[in-house]
């Protein structure tokens, strides 16, 4: 079997081309816009399918070097922080607690579904956890971290393959269900949508936009880099204190501190167009990150345990949709902000933090801003849910 590893610069250039394809397709397709399908999904998944076909037809495995993706993730979370308002953040305290509680309940339900389906197929029940919160809420990192325990201690030899395959299906599904869920809720409940032109990430799909000048982009870029520097040292300090968080959380916090602490003290440093600059840079970074994540999917990993995976993932996706529409939306307030949070809940439960944010971005670009959602969801994804998931996984493994 042949293997090709694409150089990082070429991979980055290809991702730009794929994002262009997604944006053009979205501009020309009313159907894609109607269901708020994220632009990166179109090009990224097209690449993943092409790479999969090359593997199956010619036995050539193509891999991409995507080291730059981590930096793109930091940039767009720093951008969220720089556009946050402390009053909105404080008002999000109750929704933050509620969404964290809902996510905790869902983690348990997700593992129960995985374990139950594994029992039906005559597998070790704990193997079902690899198609539960380990791979879906935890992601690839959690899957890789727990796989040795399942193989060595529990004797489940294909644990890693099941987990990676479930994560792949979940990631693709999360990208596709978020926009339609929000669109359904907005139409079904006739919700008053948000304000256009003041988005946390990206710009609206309307034809008329506020122009962005040279200084607006440069000023935004400078503050983003300062956020990354502060976030780096904050991350080091937290690690020394024994608190291990994803680095994007530190960059998000750094942005909040600068926006609400430093900016009011130095108002003359603000430049017209800075907000638009932040939105555009963050939008590009987010789109590039998810495009890279999808184009690097190895679809051939799905060939093992197909019947089990097909059954368990069908149930997981169905449960995510129903739980989001009938529980999350109602508990989170049944308003437009709640519908945007619902668009991201699929990313929380089936994909990743980036998937959740890109789903919400696609919805807000079409229907208007939802500032509180862009603070609450990243905090739940990046901090609370990881801790709760680790505790729940440990309980089920040792039970």
UniProtKB/TrEMBL annotation:
<comment type="function">
    <text>Catalyzes the sodium-dependent transport of glutamate.</text>
</comment>
<keyword id="KW-0769">Symport</keyword>
<feature type="transmembrane region" description="Helical">
    <location>
        <begin position="306"/>
        <end position="329"/>
    </location>
</feature>
<dbReference type="InterPro" id="IPR004445">
    <property type="entry name" value="GltS"/>
</dbReference>
<keyword id="KW-0472">Membrane</keyword>
<keyword id="KW-1003">Cell membrane</keyword>
<keyword id="KW-0812">Transmembrane</keyword>
<keyword id="KW-0997">Cell inner membrane</keyword>
<keyword id="KW-0029">Amino-acid transport</keyword>
<keyword id="KW-1133">Transmembrane helix</keyword>
<keyword id="KW-0813">Transport</keyword>
<feature type="transmembrane region" description="Helical">
    <location>
        <begin position="96"/>
        <end position="121"/>
    </location>
</feature>
<feature type="transmembrane region" description="Helical">
    <location>
        <begin position="278"/>
        <end position="300"/>
    </location>
</feature>
<feature type="transmembrane region" description="Helical">
    <location>
        <begin position="374"/>
        <end position="397"/>
    </location>
</feature>
<feature type="transmembrane region" description="Helical">
    <location>
        <begin position="341"/>
        <end position="362"/>
    </location>
</feature>
<comment type="similarity">
    <text>Belongs to the glutamate:Na(+) symporter (ESS) (TC 2.A.27) family.</text>
</comment>
<feature type="transmembrane region" description="Helical">
    <location>
        <begin position="6"/>
        <end position="26"/>
    </location>
</feature>
<feature type="transmembrane region" description="Helical">
    <location>
        <begin position="38"/>
        <end position="58"/>
    </location>
</feature>
<keyword id="KW-0406">Ion transport</keyword>
<feature type="transmembrane region" description="Helical">
    <location>
        <begin position="214"/>
        <end position="234"/>
    </location>
</feature>
<feature type="transmembrane region" description="Helical">
    <location>
        <begin position="164"/>
        <end position="186"/>
    </location>
</feature>
<keyword id="KW-0915">Sodium</keyword>
<dbReference type="Pfam" id="PF03616">
    <property type="entry name" value="Glt_symporter"/>
</dbReference>
<keyword id="KW-0739">Sodium transport</keyword>
<feature type="transmembrane region" description="Helical">
    <location>
        <begin position="64"/>
        <end position="84"/>
    </location>
</feature>
<protein>
    <recommendedName>
        <fullName>Sodium/glutamate symporter</fullName>
    </recommendedName>
</protein>
<feature type="transmembrane region" description="Helical">
    <location>
        <begin position="246"/>
        <end position="266"/>
    </location>
</feature>
